Amino acid sequence: MVNATNKNQETALHIATRYTQGKAVLALLEAGADPHLMDKHLETSLHIAAWDGQNGLLDLLCRFSHFLDIQNSDGDSALHIAAIRGHLECLESLLENGAQVDLQNQ
């Protein structure tokens, strides 16, 4: 049930990330929430954290994520989004955690 989705295919993890609820994000991840699940725009919680410049949450999500380079419906990875939005700390965190620097936007 921790990975149940709403009509927009958002999980509780997507929503907790969007509203910067760090304790909830950690609790969901520890309960088995899948950080790789995508909403209707093919965005993961990493995309949301990168968009909002939530570096602390992004670091936490990276610890539970094996795939940092998932591309959304626009072809953007979390790294692309952090760069577009000018979130330097998020860029650094993603790179330190192994995001691909040569991934092309599709």
From TrEMBL:
Superkingdom of origin organism: Eukaryota
ANK repeats mapped onto the chain: 8-40, 74-106
PROSITE patterns tied to this protein: ANK_REP_REGION, ANK_REPEAT
Keywords noted in UniProt: ANK repeat, Repeat
Official protein name in the record: Uncharacterized protein
Annotated organism of origin: Meloidogyne javanica
Lineage: Eukaryota, Metazoa, Ecdysozoa, Nematoda, Chromadorea
